[in-house]
Design goal:
Length: about 850
């Protein structure tokens, strides 16, 4: 179904240009109060300030936490660099000055970190150790070495770790060399960049261009440690995407969609395809695209009063006027008169005939004597209201500020009042027997591409079900739940009022932040409102400041939008996969998603088998993204979100994985695209122009390529549901006699978690799990110095147990694996 384009080219948040975003009132209207009648007086404090996107450089995670806690929105575009952290913020001119006062550097257009593409000669190492892969004494390890190509250019990405990396004096450096193919010598030495997060050493890394694919790399530390590693292919040789199937239909969405358009199309899909689709309504209604009508009267000093209606603006609040009246005479009491929706505050006078009502007194009078029209009245922000209130010189109309229409925004009124969110469910067998996949888009209001990407995926399922074999397998093998916009109130505000809106529209702010000048900063970050690793438990990345872009809410699950997600996964227990779709940045991540900053203590990491399954799935998903126009999400942007991005306390992925065992992914679509003309990577934006150069950033291209990835996620889930084969595992090099201590490790033929014992006991699900050597690394190596018997079994991601072993029951012939390492030093 085709829809008209929504032209937002002039309003887009564009990292390349730093475009200004403003909510534009109709011609001839007062921008502070577009619906006020002629002659209505408004405070300039209520006008929306223009904002722009700026690039920042911070000294590290501590400064990032302080900046976020202060209320700044640095959620996207964050990049770890050797000098600290670079990020993006949507700010006013006043906020730029505030950031600079905190020590944040504002970067120019050509400033910031860039990988050094030239071999710099490295350094002179102090006496190399012998190369000893997998040695328990190894001080240097290769974490990963990945080769990929995009737009005709080859790249090598390397991560390596030294056991001495935490050392600060002197800082241990790392040097990288690569060969030029099998059988060639190492060369082209270059210094690697050290990555430190929240005071903890992570690893060293590099990304650079190469003309020839290397076969191996060599990494050397400045203290002499050295190791080699093989180069692997990243996103190469992927199976053909579904879009290459004969007769396959795609490209259904041709413009950005408001929540009303998204929900309307979801309902129409269910009506058109009742045999495979239906609508489920989530039980908890949102706050609604509605606000109380307000006015700020009297400037910013102690004489100022902020007035809020009892009724929502559209339900009568917008009809209220307030007039502070000076009467002739002396010794007059403060009084309030109400005629219909007109409130007259008759200001008090002293014996000399001077005005005598303070702002605090007027606020109290309005709350208690306005015949229920005023719900809230208080001094301006942190004022105590000791100043004497002046007459207004005429009535001031209250407004909810929701009547603005931005140039290019869709026509028609936005429905007011609480919203019920529909879920589009697609699947031939919607009876709980097939693995469920939850696609949740637009938690964050300004992220328009995730919604179109999700809708495009839904359209592909229903349009190709009867004609494409692979799509038929998905629809008949999975049970898909689409939440096309999980934040309809905020999204409407983003479309119609303030493009940069991130949160929902629930205002939890106390009086000091409740005046309409702060209206663009109200709301809760829905992806900080969950229960596992939350800010309420001391994890970093969620703010207690109600105007912060990452405000976590007054308590866990305080918001109906987050409550709905928990309701959905508890009601439909067959949901085993979840993708929370965001923008922009290109990262694909999972757990751990948060950490306690002091000591960088993360939430529990997934078992090695689950981690391997995440990586395997990511490779499949991202290969299909690449197939559309060669957009590559690089390995540095894949993994645990707290490792590749930052700590995000109380995110939905953490809750769903740890509470319900759901494989929960987070996706920042709209990643960097390599531009061969300039030789640079071009970043995305929240609302890129829909049309544009198909090789660069555009909403249409991002929608199509990331829909490819979502379709592949459905195939991952379908394969998972059909997986009935038990995994196989071995102990390498295996049991037998050895004349000296030996290093051994477990290997599996597919992603699987190994449970083992070495004390002679029978292995169970409570036994030790085989873990990674370090995060983002393969399994640990056991240095066996005395005769040891290993007993173990493995469990794959689908729950199949090796050799059909039942770890819960002790049988006569246990089918777990066993091997004995005999150390005979004679």
């Amino acid at each position: 179904m085709r829809r008209r384009h929504l032209n937002v080219a002039l309003l887009a948040l564009t990292a390349m240009t730093g475009s200004v975003l403003m909510a534009t009132a109709p011609a001839g209207a007062d921008p502070a109060h577009p619906t006020a009648g002629a002659g209505a007086k408004r405070s300039h404090l209520e006008a929306q300030e223009s904002v722009r996107l700026v690039r920042l450089q911070l000294t590290g995670a501590d400064m990032l936490d302080k900046v976020v806690a202060a209320g700044f929105d640095l959620e996207h575009g964050v990049k770890r660099v050797p000098t600290g952290i670079e990020g993006e913020a949507v700010v006013t001119a006043e906020q730029v000055a505030e950031l600079q006062s905190m020590g944040v550097r504002i970067l120019g257009a050509d400033e910031g970190f860039a990988w050094n593409e030239q071999a710099d000669g490295g350094f002179q190492a102090a006496g190399r150790q012998a190369v000893a892969p997998l040695s328990h004494e190894q001080t240097v390890r290769v974490v990963r070495a990945d080769w990929f190509t995009t737009k005709g250019q080859g790249f090598l990405y390397v991560e390596a770790r030294t056991t001495e990396g935490q050392q600060e004096d002197p800082v241990v450096g790392m040097q990288l060399e690569n060969d030029s193919g099998r059988g060639t010598s190492f060369g082209f030495p270059r210094t690697m960049s050290r990555f430190v997060d929240s005071g903890q050493y992570m690893f060293h890394r590099n990304l650079f261009k190469l003309d020839e694919r290397p076969s191996q790399i060599r990494v050397t530390s400045s203290t002499g440690g050295v190791t080699t590693g093989k180069v692997s292919d990243w996103l190469e040789n992927a199976p053909p995407p579904l879009t290459e199937n004969r007769g396959y239909k795609s490209d259904f969405v041709d413009g950005y969609q408001t929540p009303q358009q998204l929900y309307s199309r979801a309902k129409e899909i269910a009506r058109q395809y009742p045999d495979i689709a239906q609508i489920i309504y989530l039980p908890n209604k949102t706050n609604g695209y509605q606000r109380k009508a307000q006015a700020t009267i009297g400037g910013t000093g102690q004489s100022a009063v902020v007035v809020s209606s009892a009724a929502w603006g559209h339900e009568g609040g917008n009809d209220i006027t307030v007039d502070f009246v000076e009467r002739p005479g002396a010794d007059l009491p403060l009084a309030v008169e109400v005629t219909g929706k007109a409130i007259r505050v008759l200001l008090a006078k002293d014996a000399a005939g001077a005005l005598a009502s303070t702002a605090a007194q007027v606020a109290t009078a309005l709350e208690t004597q306005s015949a229920g029209l005023v719900d809230r009245a208080h001094p301006y922000r942190t004022n105590t209201g000791t100043g004497i209130v002046a007459a207004t010189g005429g009535p001031v109309a209250l407004t909810d500020f929701l009547d603005q229409k931005r140039v290019g925004a869709p026509e028609g009124e936005v429905p007011r009042g609480p919203a019920t969110i529909p879920v589009l469910r697609i699947g031939k067998h919607r009876d709980g027997t097939k693995p469920g996949v939850l696609i949740q888009a637009q938690d964050h209001a300004r992220e328009w591409v995730p919604a179109t990407t999700s809708l495009e995926s839904a359209e592909r399922l229903v349009h190709n079900y009867r004609t494409d074999r692979e799509t038929k397998k998905i629809v008949e093998g999975t049970d898909v739940f689409f939440i096309l916009s999980n934040n309809p109130d905020g999204a409407n505000y983003s479309f119609y009022n303030f493009a940069s809106q991130r949160k929902n529209l629930t205002n939890h702010c106390p009086d000091e932040n409740a005046d309409p000048g702060r209206r663009d900063s109200w709301g809760v970050d829905l992806n900080r409102n969950y229960r596992v690793g939350s800010g309420h438990d001391g994890y970093a990345g969620g703010s207690t400041v109600c105007t912060s872009g990452t405000y976590q809410g007054p308590e866990e699950l305080s918001e109906p939008e987050s409550q709905n997600i928990i309701w959905l996964v508890e009601k439909y227990r067959n949901i085993k996969f979840m993708m929370s779709v965001h923008s922009n940045g290109g990262q694909l991540f999972w757990q751990p998603g948060a950490y306690i900053a002091d000591g960088r203590i993360t939430t529990p990491r997934p078992p090695l088998g689950d981690e391997a399954f995440y990586w395997q799935s990511a490779g499949r998903i991202l290969s299909q993204v690449k197939a559309y126009r060669e957009t590559v999400v690089t390995p540095e942007n894949v993994g645990g979100s707290s490792d590749v991005l930052y700590s995000s306390a109380g995110n939905v992925r953490e809750d769903l994985y740890h509470t319900y065992g759901i494989y929960a992914f987070g996706w920042e679509v709209g990643g960097s695209v390599y531009n061969p003309a300039t030789g640079n990577w071009q970043g995305g934006s929240f609302q890129p122009p829909w049309e544009g150069d198909p090789n660069l950033v555009s909403g249409h291209s991002e929608t199509m390529e990331y829909a490819n990835g979502i379709m592949e996620m459905f195939r991952v889930a379908a394969d998972w549901g059909k997986d009935k084969k038990d995994p196989k595992s071995t102990l390498v090099p295996g049991g037998g006699k050895y004349r000296a201590p030996v290093d051994v490790r477990f290997e599996t033929n597919e992603p699987a978690t190994v449970y083992y014992t070495t004390d002679g006991s029978r292995p169970t699900l409570q036994s030790q799990r085989y873990e990674a050597t370090e995060f983002r690394e393969p399994g640990q190596v056991f240095h066996v110095t005395a005769t040891t018997t290993f007993k173990w079994f493995s469990v794959d991601a689908a729950g199949n147990v090796e050799n059909n072993y039942d770890p819960t029951k002790k049988g006569k012939r246990d089918s777990y694996r066993t091997a004995t390492i005999r150390i005979d030093k004679r």
